[in-house]
Amino acid sequence: MTNRYEELISKFEIKLRKLIAEYQSLQVQNNSLKAELAHKNESLIEAHGTILELRKQNDHLLMANQISGNKEERAEAKKQIDRMVREIDQCLALLNE
User: Fold this and answer.
1) Are 18 and 25 in contact (CB under 8 A)?
2) Cα 31 from Cα 57, distance rounded (Å)
3) Minimal CA–CA distance to 10: which of 18, 26, 22?
């Protein structure tokens, strides 16, 4: 009987060591995956910022393109801007009086 108990204990110890080794291996793998996830999240945040910046630049380019348009549209836009500048100058002149 004692021999049988020793054999069972020995088998149990072997299985326990295997479980502990597997657990430690899984912990290392888990830590590695956590680090990789953190890196991916940082990359995602950076990419999101880049996307926002590119969208902003695209909006500015679209606006500039709309303003530039053809010669007639540019001439009309220039007239409107000149008119606004004159109005601002008149307002400033009135404020200075």
Assistant:
1) no
2) 39
3) 18
**pTM above threshold 0.85:** no
Residue with tokens 């008149």: 90
Per residue in 37-83, pLDDT tens?
999 999 999 999 999 999 999 888 877 776 676 777 777 777 888 88
69-96 as b/e, with b when 16 or more CB fall inside 10 Å? Answer: eeeeeeeeeeeeeeeeeeeeeeeeeeee
Residue 78 CA to chain centroid, in angstroms?
39
Residue 73 Cα to chain centre, angstroms: 38
